[in-house]
Amino acid sequence: MTATRSAWHIPRYGRPDVLTPVTLPLAEPGPSEVLIRIEASAVTRADGMMRKGEPLFARPFLGLRRPRNGLSGTGLSGEVIAIGDKVSRFAPGDMVFGEAGMRFGANASHICLDESGVLMLKPDSLSHEDAAVLCDGVLTSWHYLCNLGRVRSGDRVLILGGAGSLGSAAVQIAADMGAEVTATSSARNADLVASLGATCVIDYATKEALLRGAGYDVIFDTVGVTSFSAAKPALAEAGRYLCPVLTLRRLPAVLLSSLIGRKRAMFAAVGLEKPHRLRAMLAEIIILIDQGRLAPVMDRIYPLADLKEAHAYVETGHKRGNVVVV
Q1: How do the pLDDT tens digits run along the chain, 326 residues long?
Q2: Nearest Cα to Cα of residue 122 among 97, 99, 100
């Protein structure tokens, strides 16, 4: 009898209801691969964008008419249950976390990944649910604030969207670095964002955060709600505007700001960094987590069978922190 695994297929771009459960053969790991039994996997805003084929200019990479790979999910945590004969970093029984990258397929019962990819031993201090989301909001916010924005102690930092996956991590990271953190959120999330380290929380529904002359050293727009031109008056003389949501409308600002003036619009495709660099960042993140200085914020946990519902909830734009399926 052939062993099988459950997964979720995306037959065409569209709303959450295009997601289709499938049963696939359980692959044997290749020489440098590990077979992982997945205990938890992330459901992210980026997953939803890829399901919809957005932005359109990404389709040459994702697939022009339908997703080229066709499977859902990137971030995961689980147990290694088999390894290829050339694997040296992992052994059966190891608890690991990481991401599937452009091969996708993390919203499943099992997956084969190369040991040289973004795959790490899971700390005992982290649940599978918490570990599964580290390669989304936590890793992205770390890279943007530490490596791109180069936040320093005493900097004034504004986080737009302080309660989401990226925002909840960004507030903690910036505060831990000694920055004076202001963040926007809805009124219902204000207490959460303040508890994460924001000294000032602005209700985005009632107040404007981007006041001329505010003098922020870094503005991190985690959800793409503004633009460099709108944020520029609120930046300090050499301030940096960071946004991981790249659109054709934002691209000229990223290119031109490096040539004109001292204020900068900056973008980095975190997922395109070399795996060894991403593993090094994750190692730094794990130190913060082990020291109690950073913790993923969890909103909802769904059964894997309810992936459609999880996608629909993420798409409302009202989640607090992270969503996973188990």
Answers
A1: 689 999 999 999 999 999 999 999 999 999 999 999 999 999 999 999 999 988 787 788 788 888 888 999 999 999 999 999 999 999 999 999 999 988 899 999 999 999 999 999 999 999 999 999 999 999 999 999 999 999 999 999 999 999 999 999 999 999 999 999 999 999 999 999 999 999 999 999 888 899 999 999 999 999 999 999 999 999 999 999 999 987 656 666 666 666 567 899 998 888 889 999 999 999 999 999 999 999 999 999 999 999 999 999 999 988 999 999 99
A2: 97
Do 151 and 116 fall within a single domain? no
The secondary structure of the chain, three-state, reads CCCEEEEEECCCCCCHHHCEEEEEECCCCCCCEEEEEEEEEECCHHHHHHHHCCCHHHHHHHCCCCCCCCECCCEEEEEEEEECCCCCCCCCCCEEEEECHHHCCCCCCEEEEECCCCEEECCCCCCHHHHHCHHHHHHHHHHHHHHHCCCCCCCEEEEECCCCHHHHHHHHHHHHCCCEEEEEECHHHHHHHHHCCCCEEEECCCCCCCCCCCCEEEEEECCCCCCHHHHHHHEEEEEEEECCCCCCCCHHHHHHHCCCCCCEEECCCHHHCCHHHHHHHHHHHHHHHHCCCCCCCEEEEECHHHHHHHHHHHHCCCCCCEEEEC
**Residues 144 and 128 both lie in one domain:** no
Q: Which residues does residue 95 pair with via DSSP β-bridges, in sequence order? A: 79
Is position 108 within any domain?
Answer: yes
Can you give the CATH number for the domain in which 253 is found?
3.40.50.720
Domain ranges, residue 31: 4-133+296-325
Give this prediction's pTM: 0.93
